[in-house]
Design a protein that fits this description.
This protein starts with a helix and ends with a strand. The protein is of the alpha+beta class and 290 residues long. A 7-stranded mixed sheet has the order 2-1-6-5-4-3-7. Helix 3 packs across helix 7 and helix 5 crosses helix 8. The chain is elongated and about 65 Å long. The protein has 2 domains: 165 residues, Butyryl-CoA Dehydrogenase, subunit A, domain 3 (Up-down Bundle), CATH 1.20.140; 115 residues, Nuclear Transport Factor 2, Chain: A. A hairpin with a 2-residue loop joins strand 5 and strand 6.
């Protein structure tokens, strides 16, 4: 590949990078893994003969989808071995908002609640649903990616859609509203104000803890406003407000070292989900600004 052709190809690839990262992120739920998938697509592009490709964006989307499907299947195999769930990450965004590409992805990103639902799907279901429902890829093009007929690919997406529609919550997009709700939650928790906690919690709020947090004594799952309020009332005194991957959250960081992060999903001004993350590997991949 000549220098001029290589530069031209790199420029064309860069014009599709934001789209490809959005596709990969929705499939994988991890900014770092999404970036790995996009980089693998570039490597495959640089080694391939694409002179006869009329739709480079479509070709690259297919490549990224295949890479993501392999990664999802590998993750599923590791999960079955470890019996620990993969905690989805929100899009990483610099605290000062100076990364335009990350800002675009953040604006387009799905909420953590939907990512949690997507994590329950089989790899082929997730790929079919993301490609068709989020990026309008025809089933004729999805079929060879997932190794099924177009009709079977349609069924995969349909099953995924039913599960998503039954459980997903659309989070509030206003960061100032999210910050106000999280601050009110923290103040009520520190002060042991049970009624104030109930006021910011959705009646069906869910608190989930990752396996590392459970090992420290946290309940794996708590459901309902009263039960979650009881869990936090008079506690969280050492927690600090933080930006967690660009979204308002809380962190317990004794000595400046993050030990537990609390992520919030807020809808209609109420907290609908709280995720406790204590796994050191997951914490290292979070973008925290205390």
């Amino acid at each position: 590949m000549s220098v001029d052709h290589g530069e031209w190809l790199a420029e064309r690839f860069e014009s599709h990078r934001t789209h490809l990262r959005a596709v990969a992120y929705r499939m994988l739920g991890s900014p770092s893994e999404a970036e790995d998938a996009v980089q693998e697509a570039w490597l495959r592009l640089s080694r391939s003969r694409t002179s006869g490709v009329d739709n480079l964006g479509g070709w690259l989307t297919t490549v990224v989808a295949r890479v993501c499907l392999d990664m999802l299947r590998s993750r599923k195999a590791r999960r079955e071995e470890s019996l620990e769930a993969h905690a989805p990450e929100k899009i990483v965004s610099d605290a000062d908002g100076t990364d335009p590409e990350h800002e675009v992805l953040l604006a387009e990103s799905v909420g953590l609640a939907l990512l949690v639902v997507l994590e329950t799907l089989a790899p082929a279901e997730r790929v079919a649903f993301v490609l068709h429902d989020m990026f309008a890829v025809p089933f004729d093009e999805i079929a060879p990616i997932v190794g099924r007929s177009p009709a079977a690919a349609r069924q995969l997406a349909s099953r995924a859609r039913r599960r998503v529609q039954g459980t997903a919550t659309v989070p509030d997009a206003d960061p100032s509203l999210q910050r106000a709700v999280v601050d009110a939650f923290l103040a009520a928790s520190r002060g042991g104000n049970f009624d104030a906690l109930l006021a910011v919690l959705d009646p069906d709020v869910v608190l989930r803890a990752d396996p590392a947090a459970v090992r420290t004594g946290a309940p794996r799952e708590v459901r309902g406003a009263a039960a979650v309020a009881n869990t936090f009332s008079g506690r969280a005194r050492a927690a600090q407000p933080a930006l967690v991957n660009g979204a308002p959250g809380l962190v317990w960081a004794p000595g400046g070292r993050p030990r537990v992060v609390f992520g919030f999903t807020i809808s209609h001004g109420k907290i609908v989900e709280i995720d406790m993350v204590a796994d050191p590997d997951r914490l290292r991949h979070l973008d925290l600004s205390i």
